[in-house]
Design brief:
- The complex is a heterotrimer of chains A (457), B (295) and C (253).
- Chain A folds into 2 domains: 152 residues, no CATH class; 246 residues, MetI-like (MetI-like fold, Orthogonal Bundle).
- Helices cover 77% and strands 0% of the residues of chain A.
- Chain A contains 15 helices and no strands.
- Chain A starts with a helix and ends with a helix.
- Chain B is flat, with a radius of gyration of 26 Å.
- Chain B folds into 2 domains: 51 residues; 233 residues, MetI-like (MetI-like fold).
- Chain B is mostly helical and 295 residues long.
- In chain B, helix 6 crosses helix 8.
- Chain B contains 11 helices and no strands.
- Chain B starts with 8 loop residues before the first helix and ends with a helix.
- Chain C is α/β, with parallel strands linked by helices.
- Chain C has a domain of 173 residues: Rossmann fold (3-Layer(aba) Sandwich), CATH 3.40.50.
- Chain C has a 6-stranded mixed beta sheet, with helices on both faces. A 4-stranded antiparallel beta sheet of chain C has the order 2-1-4-5, with helices on one face.
- The two termini of chain C are 36 Å apart.
- Classes of the chains: A mainly alpha (457), B mainly alpha (295), C alpha/beta (253).
- At the A-C interface, helix 11 and helix 12 of A face helix 2, helix 3 and helix 6 of C.
């Protein structure tokens, strides 16, 4: 609480600094050309000197304070009564923290009551120390900044340098995110691969993490059925729907539709891409899956399941149509008009021109688009969670229930679970595989697209 | 005299065949579009048919409940609003600043290439991977409160930022160099030029991209499933650290209920979500049409 | 006197609201080269594209008046633009070989029109077209190479061969040398001279020297009007119209 308050105080102080700096600089103004920078920049400069060092100290203190509090509490005689068991101990400490913040909170452990009062005192003590430190740094920074306000001082250059720093930091977040993804996936998957060898994981054909216990644990983590289900639903069934429909839509929109027709049809088609996947998933489960099941029954399948690879794949394919269509649209548009002119001038019909000249010329772009579409389909989660099923079947029957990588990740990480069991860790291993595959597909596709564009420039 | 080569019955038949094939092909293209749209219409009609009856005031103002008649959507909607707020506050400034840096200031070197590759790939990483990141980093490492809008917003912000950066860069790129030269010409610094001239001109484009990215985040379910935003929330969350649900999650949870009454609720919640998305996309299109300048 | 191959009567061409060609009438004869000259934007290319209905492919383009090929109205409902374009071939400003092999570039036209029965006959058509275009000796050993791998001048001759392969009656050329160097240009001009015996050739050019070198008749277009049309020697030496004279002497352009 105190720390949050001091944060607001620092910002307020920065605001004051801005006005003070600007006001002071205005006093220095002595006719045209007398100052290097506008007074506003002196204001910014002073405000930055107040806020930035204080924020750094504040962040550092927030990070180390819990450790300091813990240490001080352990030194307190009351802490001697805490049980040795780590889990029990941390439960009590957590409750004590809750009580320290809110004396009215209800708790289970009586011991936490006893700890609350000393804990509150300790937290208050350290918070005050932190607040004091922050305040000192803010004022010291402000004082230094204030002394630098001179007519010839290049406040603008300094402020702009700070702006550049902020811009750079913002763009580094992307790398940080990528790094965070890779690090967390690799780390958790690494823990998993200690128990289950990557080879057993990648080549095993039996998947039932629920039974994974004891020495033969690896035998229950064979992920091949998941990979097959993912490919069958995302890269085969969905693409059988999305490629012809998406490609033909793009062909019609770019080659046949009048301008006004295109103006209307294209956004409507794009609505399909804007519908949340959970809605598709519900639609698949509610409408498409029963239809597929009835169809399966009518062609003589015995006890077809409601959850089927076909239902999930069909709906996923529809979801991907606008994506394929817009990639194909771009690819077709990148083929110079001279190509189709050349063909039409020979007396080819539109469709002959499209089939024999335009599509072959646009093929690299279209293939890249399909790769991106596949990468999107295999990473899609909600549709398969709601329509594909949990059974790890290694089957080519589209009416069979099939499971996917994303489905299993959800399955493994929701509901009751203890963290760090092979079961939950396997989800990260699956995530790692998914990440690598989509990454490779994307990189290849983007490279193909780039080379393809350059070829026609 | 006319070329006899084209007058033979054989040549005529061949031409007729080619034209028939042309018509078939064209019809196929139109058919593909019609089929896709038919699917869209079917989806909407079914949702409207199932859900419209459930859309009343108590549904719009209530929160989740074990009884379908009592259950409402406001608790989840408020969770969505809080989550979107966190996402917007984080992703928009970061995304815009990163876009400015990459487009206007970044030197050409390996590091910047790495940033660009990162951003392009992040935009295509499956959303569930962001959920795993959120789970591993925000919950298991930083111990932020599970199921809360703050974690959901953080996770979705990381997912949305690349979208904003990419659209932001395109919008900035579209501002012609002459504007920059004009500003330099009267002695503005590069930072001044960027923030006073380039950014305001690029803003409509950036906003359009931001709204589209936010709309995508609003409809997202999978990453939030990972960070446990599937709490049963009988009262709307009071702040960004309270356990909460979001609209798409509510749809997912209700869709799993056995009670038939929840079919209507699910569809009604879908209608609410789609109305939100439609409004956002409409706003984006409006902004684009109103402010977009063709240079 | 034989009948003119192409007769245009009171032709107007519109792009949307804009009138690009205004009331042009012209006769084009077999066995000679007719050049269209004029400053850029004068409509010469537009008019050329209306002679094989390539304007149909541009949204909003409209042609009125009459254009007769061997007495047949090419804009009549009974005229199939697909068949028409096989009879009136076209070569474009920038060489535009398809991204296929040299052989496939030539074979494409005959194949869609069904002009060859069997591989042997197709080989023969390809060889004849390439020979006529003066390219055979240069490419006969690498027919399966990509057409785009040839030099600019070779690509343009490939495009001419491609047009010849469907045995057209008229060949329209839209500034065929403007993207080429002088040596390649000279080569194409020789070719045009050889080809004129078998086809009616119409060439649009922005180079008056080229028009003077390759054509027997010259039409001068200005602001969508046909200003003057006559024997090339007459148009260049004793133009009847002041506008023609000003253009030829370089007052504007």
């Amino acid at each position: 609480m105190i720390l949050t308050g001091i944060l607001l105080a620092v910002v307020g102080l920065g605001l004051v600094g801005w006005f003070v700096g600007r006001g002071r600089a205005r006093l220095l103004y002595d006719g045209r050309g007398s100052m290097h920078s506008m007074p506003t920049y002196h204001g910014w400069h002073l405000a930055l000197w107040i806020v930035v060092p204080a924020l750094v100290v504040w962040t550092a203190w927030s990070a180390i304070q819990p450790g300091l509090v813990e240490g001080a509490l352990m030194a307190d005689p009351v802490a001697a009564t805490l049980p040795a068991d780590a889990m029990h101990r941390s439960a009590i400490l957590a409750e004590a923290h809750m009580l320290a913040n809110d004396p009215g909170a209800s708790v289970f452990n009586a011991q936490s009551q006893a700890l609350a009062a000393p804990l509150r005192a300790i937290v208050t003590r350290f918070s005050l120390i932190g607040a004091l430190l922050v305040a000192i740094v803010a004022f010291a920074g402000g004082a230094y900044g204030f002394t630098r306000i001179r007519a010839r001082f290049e406040a603008r250059t300094q402020v702009e340098r700070a702006v550049m720093g902020v811009l750079l930091l913002a763009s580094l977040i992307a790398i940080l995110t990528t790094f965070g993804i890779v690090a967390s996936l690799v780390f958790e998957a690494g823990l998993f691969f200690k128990d289950v060898s990557p080879i057993a994981f990648l080549t095993g054909t039996h998947w039932s993490p629920g039974n994974a216990r004891g020495a033969d644990i690896a035998e229950n983590f064979g992920a091949v059925p998941l990979f097959w289900g993912t490919i069958y639903i995302g890269a085969i069934i969905a693409m059988l729907v999305a490629i012809p429909l998406g490609l033909m839509s793009a062909v019609y929109l770019t080659q046949y539709a009048s301008r006004s027709m295109r103006k209307w049809l294209k956004p409507i088609l794009e609505i399909l891409a804007g519908i949340p996947t959970v809605v598709y998933g519900y639609f698949a489960a509610l409408t498409v899956a029963p239809l597929v099941r009835d169809f399966a029954a009518s062609i003589g399948m015995q006890n077809p399941s409601t959850e089927s690879a076909l239902a999930a794949g069909l709906v996923m394919g529809v979801m991907i149509i606008p994506f394929v269509s817009s990639m194909a649209d771009d690819a077709l548009a990148a083929v110079p008009r001279a190509m189709s002119d050349g063909s039409l001038a020979l007396g080819a019909t539109r469709s002959e021109t499209i089939k024999k000249v335009l599509l072959p010329a646009a093929l690299p772009g279209i293939v890249a688009g399909v790769m991106l579409a596949i990468s999107r389909a295999i990473g899609e989660t909600m549709i398969v969670v709601m329509a594909a099923g949990a059974a790890a079947n290694l089957s080519a029957n589209p009416f069979a229930s099939m499971t996917t990588v994303t489905f299993q990740i959800v399955q493994l990480l929701t509901g009751d679970q203890e963290f760090n069991s092979p079961k939950t860790l396997s989800a990260f291993a699956l995530g790692l595989i998914l990440f690598i595959v989509t990454l490779v597909l994307n990189i290849i596709a983007l490279r193909v697209v780039k080379r393809f564009r350059e070829a026609y420039e | 005299m006319s070329n006899p080569q084209w007058q033979t019955p054989e040549a005529r038949r061949r031409l007729a065949r080619r034209h028939a094939s042309e018509r078939r092909f064209k019809a196929l293209g139109l058919g593909a579009i019609v089929l896709s749209m038919a699917f869209l219409v079917l989806l909407l009609v079914i949702m409207l048919k199932n859900g419209l009856g459930g859309l009343d005031w108590s549904f719009l103002t209530g929160s989740d409940s074990t009884s379908p008649d009592m259950a409402g959507v406001w608790g989840a909607a408020k969770g969505s609003l809080l989550t979107m707020f966190v996402t917007l506050v984080l992703a928009f400034p970061m995304g815009v600043l990163a876009a400015i840096y990459l487009e206007e200031f970044a030197p050409k070197n390996k590091w910047i290439d790495l940033v660009e590759v990162s951003i392009n790939n992040l935009a295509a990483v499956p959303s569930i991977i962001f959920g795993l990141l959120g789970l591993a980093v925000f919950i298991n490492t930083l111990h932020l409160p599970r199921s809360s809008p703050v974690v959901g917003g953080l996770t979705l912000a990381l997912m949305t930022m690349p979208v904003i950066v990419i659209s932001g860069r395109n919008a900035i790129k579209a501002v012609p160099p002459s504007i920059r030269e004009a500003a330099y010409g009267i002695g503005a610094s590069k930072v001044q030029t960027t923030f006073h001239h380039v950014l305001p001109l690029a803003l409509p484009g950036i906003l359009t991209g931001t709204i589209i990215g936010m709309a995508r985040a609003l409809g997202e379910t999978a990453p939030l499933l990972m960070i446990g935003m599937r709490a049963f929330v009988a009262t709307p969350p009071g702040g960004i650290t309270d356990p909460s649900s979001v609209l798409p999650m509510q749809i997912f949870l209700w869709s799993d209920e056995i009670d038939k009454g929840f079919v209507q609720n699910t569809s009604a919640a879908i209608i609410v979500l789609l109305v939100f998305l439609l409004a956002m996309n409409g706003l984006a299109i409006y902004l684009r049409n109103k402010f977009e300048v063709r240079w | 006197m034989t009948e003119p191959k192409l007769i245009a009567r009171n032709v107007d061409v519109y792009y949307g609201e804009k009138k690009a060609i205004d009331n042009v009438s012209i006769d084009i004869d077999n066995g000679i080269v007719t050049a269209f000259i004029g400053p850029s934007g004068c409509g010469k290319s537009t008019f050329l594209r209306s002679l094989n209905r390539m304007n149909d492919t541009i949204a909003g383009a409209k042609v009125t008046g009459e254009i007769l090929l061997d007495g047949e109205d090419i804009y009549a409902a009974s005229m199939d633009p697909v068949a028409l374009r096989a009879r009136v071939g076209m070569v474009f400003q920038k060489p535009n070989p398809f991204p296929k092999s040299i052989y496939e570039n030539i074979a494409y036209g005959p194949r869609i029109h069904g002009l060859a029965q069997g591989k042997a006959q197709m080989d023969e058509i390809v060889e004849r077209a390439l020979t006529k275009a003066g390219l055979w000796d240069e490419v006969k050993d690498r027919l399966s190479d990509a057409g785009t791998a040839l030099s600019g001048g070779q690509q343009q001759r490939l495009c001419i061969a491609r047009a010849i392969a469907v045995s057209p009656e008229v060949i329209l050329m839209d500034e065929p040398c403007s993207a080429l160097d002088p040596i390649a240009t000279a080569r194409i001009e020789e070719l045009i001279d050889e080809l004129k015996n078998s086809y009616a050739i119409v060439i649009v050019t922005h180079s008056m020297q080229q028009a003077a070198r390759v054509s027997q008749r010259t039409a001068f277009f200005h602001l969508g009007n046909l200003v003057e049309y006559g024997e090339t020697s007459q148009v260049f030496t004793t133009p009847r119209e002041d506008r023609t004279k000003d253009y030829i002497t370089g007052r504007y352009g």
